[in-house]
Amino acid sequence: MSLNSQTTHADLTLIPARSERSLFWRAFSRNVLAVMGAAIIAAMFLLAIFADYLAPYDPDLPHLPDKLTPPSSTYLLGTDQFGRDILSRIIFGARVSLFIGVGGTALSFIVGVTLGAVSGYAGKWVDEILMRAMDIVMAFPFIVLAIALVVLMGTGLLNLILVIGILRVPQFARVLRSSVLSLKEEEFVVAARTVGQTPVRILFRHILPNALGPLLVLASLSIATAITTESALSFLGIGIQPPQSTWGTMLSDGRRYMLNAPWIATFPGLVLSLTIFGYNLVGDGLRDGLDPRTRKGL
């Protein structure tokens, strides 16, 4: 018996998947900017995870004799108006910003993917109701709706995650809905229906894996948007409340001292911009790595 005849059906389904993963990682690793973005994100996560060990001072402990101290060997990035170490506050701020960014995106991913899958596969009046609801959410300016929801629900870490998660649901729902509409009439989906597989199994076993690429790209960009939204809300004073350190509150504090102590706002702003830049680079790398047209010759 030949080797081909001994190959099982499971083997045949695994080989293309492994090949696709191999091509993706090869394309991603050869993208210098994407790798740089991944390194930036990894560094920020390390700061957030090991903040208790990396921060030289208590980020919330004021020391008035050292207030508005410029960068020096004692305080590498200077101190704020209360004498708190800027470097320590940036390190602990990474923990808050990344937790909100990842948490809010995870929530919007789960809810959006569920609604998009149901909408695209069920069609008819279900699709009409769900998509009109998404249109209503998207009709409002993003930051205005975020402010309204925070005022309604209250400030705090979990509330910010919930608000940001709600606001990003329509994007995920629409992306997956369009993928489901284009895939549900493909031969492999029709064959799955013919053999009696349930809609849930068809969606999550056959359709979702083939629609995962655009969702991953959107998720990377959404984390950057979530971090920006948290910073904007904290800057306006309706996000994370003092004395907890976040990049947005540090920017808000520093705007009053831009002339005589510019380091208070400059360094948190640079870290915030660098983090968002990293997620955008990774998003571009994911898009290119998952697109077969950009992987020719690999």
Strand content: under 5%
Helix content estimate:
over 70%
- Classification by helices and strands: mainly alpha
The CATH architecture classification is: Orthogonal Bundle
Strand/helix succession: HHHHHHHHHHHHH
The count of domains is: 1
Give a quick set of tags describing it.
single chain, 298 residues, mainly alpha, MetI-like fold, 13 helices, elongated, disordered N terminus
List the topology elements.
Layout: H1 3-6, H2 9-30, H3 32-49, H4 51-54, H5 86-122, H6 124-139, H7 142-153, H8 157-183, H9 187-194, H10 199-207, H11 212-235, H12 247-254, H13 263-290
Q: Your description of this structure?
A:
The longest helix has 37 residues, at 86-122. The protein is built from 13 helices and no strands. It has 298 residues and is an all-alpha fold. The model is unreliable at 1-15 (pLDDT under 50). It has helices spanning 3-6, 9-30, 32-49, 51-54, 86-122, 124-139, 142-153, 157-183, 187-194, 199-207, 212-235, 247-254, 263-290. The protein has one domain (24-294): MetI-like (MetI-like fold, Orthogonal Bundle), CATH 1.10.3720. The protein is elongated, with a radius of gyration of 23 Å.
